[in-house]
User: Fold these one by one.
Assistant:
Number 1:
Amino acid sequence: MTDSIRIVGVEKVFTAPDGSSVAAVKNVNLEIAAGKLVTLLGPSGCGKTTLLRMIAGFEEPTAGDIFFGEKRINDEPPNKRDTAMVFQSYAVFPHLDVFENVAFGLRLRKLPKAEIGERVGRVLDQTGLGPYARRSPNQLSGGQQQRVALARCLVMEPRVLLFDEPLSNLDAKLREQMRVEIRELQQRFGITSIYVTHDQVEAMSISDEIVVMNAGAVEQAGTPRTICARPATRCVADFVGKANFVEATVSAGGAVEIAGRELKLPATAGRQAGAKVTLVVRPEAVRIDAKDGLLSGTVKRAMFLGSVVEYLVAVDGAGDWLVDHPNPAETGLLKVGDTVRLTPSPASVHALP
Amino acid sequence: MARNARTELRLLARDPVLLVLLVLIAASVAIFVVYPLVRVLLASVQVDGSWTLEGYGELAGRRLYRNALVNSLGVGAVVGVVSVAVGYVCAFVLTRLDVPGKTLLHYITMLPIVSPPFVSAVSILFLFGFNGLVTRQILGLSDFSIYGFHGVVLSQVFTFAPIAYLSLRGVLASLSPTLEDAALNIGASRWQTFWKVSFPLSLPGIASAFLVVFIESMADFGNPLVLAGAAFPMLAPQAYLEITGSFNLSRGATLAIVLLIPSMTAFAIQRYYLAKRQYITVTGKPTASTSKIVSDPVKWLLYGLVLFFALLVAAFYAVILVGAFTKVWGFNYAPTLAHFIYVFQVGLNSVVDTLIVALVSTPVSGLLGMLVAFLVVRRVFPGRTALEFGSILSFAVPGTVVGIGYILAFNTPPFLLTGTLAILVLCFVFRYMPVGIQSGIAVLRQIDPSIEEAAQNLGASSLTTFRKVTLPLIAPAFFSGLVYAFVRAMTAISAAIFLVSANWNLMTVQILNQVGSGRLGVAAAFSIVVIVIVLIAIGIISLLVGRWSRHTSMVRFQ
């Protein structure tokens, strides 16, 4: 049975022995619908792991309440909360083999032997660990150990699954593969999940909803598309991907003026003419061309990244912009010092509120 | 702060079993470690119920006691310096040089650690006593006396140099040899490299080893009692004689306090000052490089010194072994089994008693030590530092002080324990727990706490987590805690001698009695029995712990 999670006014203040204190989590309110996967995204030290550990019961909130379904679980010890957590360091029991690691929680529940064997066997097959059942963890690769940690959680059929940066110790390729697997397993089991990460691509690819945190507080919560296309704050825009922040002036009739040139931007139609506005212009949302375009500028730096070339362009009257130019093999490279023309794509430019 | 403490207690109360255990442990440490010390302190400043500092005045005034203090401090310092020198050379040669037979030499050098404290004293009497093999038979001396300063120093160096060796071995093994390579690489000579790099880096370790040996020497009871002689009083035996000889408890207590002060000072320096200054240069890269800072002649010279010490150790044990099968040493060297027959007929009770005490106290001490380590490292509760300090305090308290404290504290209701098995077991449990605690804490701090959190997350209570996850993970520390507890229970004398009775007697006390009445052969036979039992026990413990935690070696290297 999976549950919705409700977090009401939760705070955590750490007090050092010398009396000084740090507020790690500040007045967080969240609602997570049953069966959804929600990501807590933010830079290190933003309080996301502390929030997760409070949900698991390893930390005590200084204020506020946490509900699983209708039940307030603040006073439940971690071993009674029926959550299952995948740790950053895997935390696989090194003295037990794969089978016993996965069976650990079921044995504590004193289930019949046959049922344990059946459930563990099933989960091992689902996670591709079947052939390794009797291996000791130190004979497994990092990815396999991560699967053991995941299988150990899934077999419990918990009310809530918790992930604490589970993929950060894996190499890039394995990380991509594992996040697809985690998402598939989570959807198949339909367990409410909270996933902590500082990797925005990871967050985008697996979440139903993303909660961006900064300095202990929630900056914005929403679907990956909303977070990316309509960031509520400069901080969110900056964190979820590369962005150029361009100062512009609203002109009449749903347009803005950048460095004296007018760009049609229907989203600003409701704003007062003459008001200052900060635009979020993603590098991939700007067309770069040697001759035609809205704005003019000079190439300051060119970096070849394989599938794209990333240019740093000094735009006349509008500061430095990062601009991505896809498929360079076909279009050829620009050199430092070349003059270029830039055109932002209006549909992809977002004006910060 | 008070609010913090309340929150901490509330969190603990979620796990009632753990809370009860914690309270029990704290109460036992208070009763069996702290309370006896308080009683000793009180006894030293109270005569017939009134407060007085007379005892201390008398101590300062009478030459016998002044000498005892000066002698004990002097012996401690000399033994400390010599033991550290011997230990450093052994540790350097056996960890850093490429020489043959390192493993064998390592075990021979460690042998004195697992044997009763008088083995060396008895060997010395066999070799250098009035009828000694060397002094009387070979050199023909008739007026040579081994008793006094030189006898005690010789015997204690032999007993405690292995302790210095073990601790310095750890220090030298953790220094990265690449530092020496770097010094040589930028043009330092070997001599400069040693004095400017290797030696300063190991200096905190050297000071720490010195203080540990100093503490052991101050607390040593057996060697001085056998070898000091009447003309060379020392604190620990003097305190014992005041109590058993002249039934002067207050005087004994006063001497015990005087004995306690230097030990506690050394302990405080070692633990709170030096421990933070150890240079550990673990890089995660293999550091098993042999040292290049000694030339070949120096290398073989140092190796010769180590061989000499190992041969000396071997000779001492050979003498004991031969002595145990010899009719009357010095007069009649005919082989005999009489001494062993005596041990297993007249002395059988003490053999059985010693085994019972050791078998009961070892598992209790080992488990309790691991539990305290777990609580101290992994749980937050008010008074955590106090508990850690209290439970390792007894490491620094000389056994004589503990023994006097126990007879003062547990001679009257509500704790009427004198003459029982319980008093011996309790004394050993709380005296020999600290080594287990210390190694448990060290191992636990290297283990990722999320492994235990994972167990809790999957539904395990604190105690289940401890039993199913923590204990198997810290198996190496558990093993060393068990071995230490057993070895010490088999070989302890200084506290135990106050606590034995007609019902419960120990082999070590028997050895002392036999030495006292001149029956060195029987003493040697008892010693052999103790050593054999200890070696068998270490084998069994390692088998049990190994079987129960199959992946011990892997855990250790994680």
Number 2:
Amino acid sequence: MTGQEWKFTSKEIAEKPELFLSGHRACAGCGPATVLRLIMKATRGPTIVTEATGCMEVASSIYPYTSWGTPWLHTAFETVAANASGIEAALKALKKKGRLKHAHVDVIAIAGDGGTYDIGFQALSGAVERGHDFLFVLYDNEAYMNTGIQRSGGTPLGAATTTSPAGTVVPGKLEHKKPIAEIMVAHEMPYVATASPYYWRDLIAKARKGLEVEGPAFLHVFAPCPRGWRTEPAKTIEYSRLAVETCVFPLWEAVDGKYSLSIPSRVFARAPEKKKPVTEYLKGQGRFRHLFMPQNKALLETIQRLTDEKWLKLLKKCGEATVSEPASSSS
Amino acid sequence: MKKVNSHVLALNGDEAVAYAVKQSDVDVVAAYPITPQTIIVERFSEYVANGEVQTEFVCTESEHSALAACLAASLTGARAFTASASAGLALMHEMLFVTSGCRAPVVMAIANRALSAPLNIHGDQSDTMAQRDSGWIQLYAENVQETYDTVIQAFRIAEDTDVLLPTIVGLDGFTLSHTLENVRVLPDEAVRAFVGTRKFIEVLTHEDKTAPFRLDPDYPMTMGPIALPNYYFEFKRQQEEAMSQALTTIRRINAEYSQLTGRSYGDGLVEAYRLEDAEVAVVCLGSTAGTVKAVIDALRLEDVKAGLLRIRAFRPFPVEQVRKLLQNMKAVAVMDKSLSFGGNGGAVYHETRHALYDADAHPRIVNYIYGLGGRDVSPGEIRQVYNDLQNVARGQLAEKSVRYLGLRE
């Protein structure tokens, strides 16, 4: 699989017909909408999409309208991986019995962080354990945005949401973001990767790899939400870049459990001085505004320290041994 | 249609379900084990392991996912089956509505079992009765033979293009699921011919093309969308219309099956036993009917004009048949193997009374809650019900119209 070469030039990508169509009701600057459009550019043939309840499901399927150029199914919030299991099993059975027109049909399951980290996790874990051949795309906007910005297992430490508000005593969410992609690697599945829409070519290539791999693939995509993050709609892609440049959201992939750093993040492994402080990413986001108040200085420092520690752990996993210590941790 | 030769196998209810599913050209079975259903998936796993079926068998991590997988498989064009009971069915609750709302003709066997708490693995019908408004057809079998026959019929009923509704086949936990009976089974090819392959209604896609109603990359279709107040109501009205259609389809399939096998179950919706000249009647579902019939035969020798109305289709509820068949009784006892807490009686009682409201005559009607948590109901107790009914018929309606049978109080 690693030998595959994709000629995803800008021209080719632009010319490929859209499968996630315009006219949906997503907000201005919606990260997930951009992500889905890019994901659908990676398809290689007949594809069935299934989607969990959430922002993109609601925004794209308001009856009698649809934004989907492929067959598409939504059933419930926590069921998208189980749906994918059923679709894949049906395709296999129909093929065995000679009742399937197509030689192969790809299955893509899409969910937000709520439908992946939290309520959908059991179905996801089960489907991956059973080895169904499908690509699971997590568009991670780091809270339950569709219901009005409630914290999820994917909400980062310190973020203010409507159920983890920054108050006079509690400074936003007190818990860490669950390392969902690494949890998926621990399932010993063939392909896991992280991606960000700023690095769109990397994102599309990873989605394509996920489709081509035999068995389950998991793609964790960073997807800023201007409404929920209290950011300017025009800065969605900028934050998608800063998250990678600060190593808050490093880009990597794990093929058959073997980790490797993706090119956009490798830069910061090889030249640590280019790595930006997390404040570059946090500032300007309303959900983190309280962190810049004097009383929360320690929490801000904790976020930097934890980001560095996680980055170092990741470098080890990726075999990036050339960098021993980040500049920030030496006295 | 010519009757086919059948041969006899010794099967318990669960095995009979698995055997019927094996013969019905099912594409996807997704299920999760739960007593007293488990033998169904165990036997079916053996068919898979021995290459006796081409079915994709998906051992899911929960009943919720089992039904979600069956629903998605069904909408992809597969014939899909699952089985559950009790807590498993309760866990599926959300997906029951989604499955019927998506008009996916999934068939599910339920080995009827009590709901917790306290934990109890034995038979009653609380599990399916709690799901009576979920948009599924519900058929209840009296014995293992009928269980086998009904599973085969269920695929035809669910997939009928006038119906397209998921269907539950209920068999009483342990009483049927684990009890060995001689079952006349059809040859594989006869079942396969009877169930046929799935037919699809033609619908208009958003690209203005006419296409079969399924997830097909050649005809992109959006299924399970969000529908706001301007459309949702019409979807629900169509489901109710499909339920009305099912009243006709269930009868038709019962008649067709009878031509093939010589076996029929009343008109498919209800079965009347010695009811024509009866004065007092019991109404019940499932295996209890067998005991009631035996008691009736004994009572008839004593010149008691006893009869039975067994409801085979609880959803759709055969209001018209129930009214016609019961309105001339002097007294009716409805037996409920579940309890609608605070609702003054059980669900079958409520619906039977409701059916009789518009009748020309109104029999006196009482309710017996019985058998909860698998408590056995004896012929002696059924006889007591008929004794009570004779008093009720004479106008001696006890102080309570809702009574408990076989209960310590």
